[in-house]
């Protein structure tokens, strides 16, 4: 079955699909194509080919070489040589994918922080929360109080009615600064301030 030419996002023209087995002209066209994709990627222009496009173009070229060599019985050294040739490509692809995942993680963390700030700003305008309930402010690990079987903090009454156990749990999950002399009432006010409440709760 003929190998299909991999597309690229840079709009570089694709060579004709190869024959089966590939001809010398097919292999030459594949090499020229992979070179164009790599060069465009390195130039870094708008909509240039991605690292994945470069890797796929290189794999396409070496696949044609391997297919052509198989027709005349590939020498023993060819397999290891092909693996060695592909190793830096695969390594580069893995590194690029890792960077993409890291950027996505950073983006998600930034979005969570922004949402938390917006919810706190809303709570600041909600007064006692009796008419317009406070929004949930998640913990630093992105879990919600309900995930820890903690009562919701919808208004100042909910905060004031927190038990000692719940006060301690909220205080720890929000990582608020703690000292031995802090009373539960003081901690309740600090919890209220942390979620955006600016009203006295006790």
Automatic annotation (TrEMBL):
In residue numbers, the region (Disordered) covers: 1-27
Superkingdom to which the source organism belongs: Eukaryota
**Xref: InterPro entries:** Mug135-like_C (IPR013902)
Task: Locate the compositionally biased regions of type Pro residues.
Answer: 15-24
Can you give the residue ranges of the Mug135-like C-terminal domain?
A: 121-198
Q: Provide the family line.
A: Belongs to the UPF0612 family.
| Name under which the protein is recorded | Mug135-like C-terminal domain-containing protein
Q: What is the lineage of its organism?
A: Eukaryota, Fungi, Dikarya, Basidiomycota, Agaricomycotina
